Amino acid sequence: MNITLVPGGNPGPYTGAGNNTYLISGKTPTLLDAATGESSHLVALAEALAGQPLGQVLVSHAHQDHVDGCGSIAARWPITCFGKMLWPERDCLQSVDFFPISDGDLIPAGDGMLRVVHTPGHAPDHLCFLDETTGTLFSADLVVQGSSVVIPNSHGGSLAQYLASLRLVLDIAPHRMLPAHGQAIDSPSEVISTYLEHRLQREAQIIELVRVGVGWPDALVKRLYPGIRPELKPMARESVLAHLVKLQEEGRARDDGECWVLT
User: Which of 14, 71, 89, 169 has the fewest C-beta atoms lying within 10 Å of its C-beta?
Assistant: First the structure.
C-alpha cells in the first residue's frame, strides 16, 4: 500500500501534536479518519491527492477529533463517500451520511483491501483497519506509544471492552500499527503488553486505595495523578470511573451512594 501521513493540524491537551490521518493512494483513494476540518489538513490532503479524487473516508469512531472534518472534506471533494460503524446518537451531529461498516468487512482501499476490526472500549464504535498483506494495522485510538488512552466511562467507554480489544489485537499480531496520535508503532506486541500491564497495576492501586477508605473518584484522582494539569482532570476522573465500573461489573466493588466500597 502507498500510505501518506496527512497531519490533522489540531494540536491540543487531548490530541497532543494533533491527529494523524492516512491517505492510501491507488484505485480507490482512501483516507483513514477525517480530523477536525482545519484548513492546513485540507491543504495537505489536496497535496497528497495530487489532483486525484478522494474516493472514501473511513472513520474509526465518532469522537470529534476523528469525525468533525467530514463536512469540510465533503465540501471540498463532493463525490467522496464516508463509512463508519454506526453510532446514531453521535453520527446525527455530522452533516454527511455514513455507509455502515461492520466487524470483519473487507473494504477496497488504494490498490488493496482493509479488514474491519471492531475494537470497542475507548468508544463503542471504535474500529481498526487491517491490511492483511503487509500486517499493517491502522489502530486509531487503541494505543499511543509513550502515553495512555482515556476510557471515557460517561460517554460510551468501557474498560472491560477495551482490555478485550487489546487482547484481540495482541492475538492478531500486526507487524506495525499506525495510530491516530503519536509515532508509528513498530513493536505492537510489546506496546500492547505494556498497556495491559499498566491497566492491571492501576486497578491494583485503586483497589488498595478504596480498601483504606479513599472511595471518591475525585480523591482517587488526587492520589493517583499528583500534579496533573487542571484541564486534564476530567479525563483522569473518567479513567478512574472506568476502573470502578469494571470492578462493579465483576462484583468486586459497588457505589453505596456516598463513595465506592469493595464487596
Answer: 89
- Helices and strands, number each (H, E), in the chain: 8, 13
Q: What is the pTM of this model?
A: 0.94
Neighbours of 234 (CB within 10 A): 13
Q: Which amino acid is at 12?
A: G
Listed in order, strand segments (DSSP E) in the chain are 2-7, 20-25, 30-32, 56-58, 81-84, 98-100, 106-109, 112-118, 127-131, 136-140, 176-179, 253-255, 260-262
Which domains occur in the chain, in start order? 2-186 (3.60.15.10), 199-262 (1.10.10)
Q: How many residues appear in the chain?
A: 263
Specify burial of residue 73 (Cβ count, 10 A radius: 0-12, 13-18, 19+).
buried
By the 8 A CB rule, do 183 and 134 touch?
no
Q: Which residue type sits at 167?
A: R
Residue 143: phi and psi, rounded to 5, are -145, 155
pLDDT tens digits in sequence order for the chain, 263 residues long: 899 999 999 998 878 899 999 999 999 999 999 999 999 999 999 999 999 999 999 999 999 999 999 999 999 999 999 999 999 999 999 999 999 999 999 999 999 999 999 999 999 999 999 999 999 999 999 999 988 899 999 899 999 999 999 999 999 999 999 999 999 999 999 999 999 999 999 999 999 999 999 999 999 999 999 989 998 899 999 999 999 999 999 999 999 988 999 99
Alpha-carbon distance of 233 to 239, in angstroms, equals 10
CA distance 251 to 157: 19
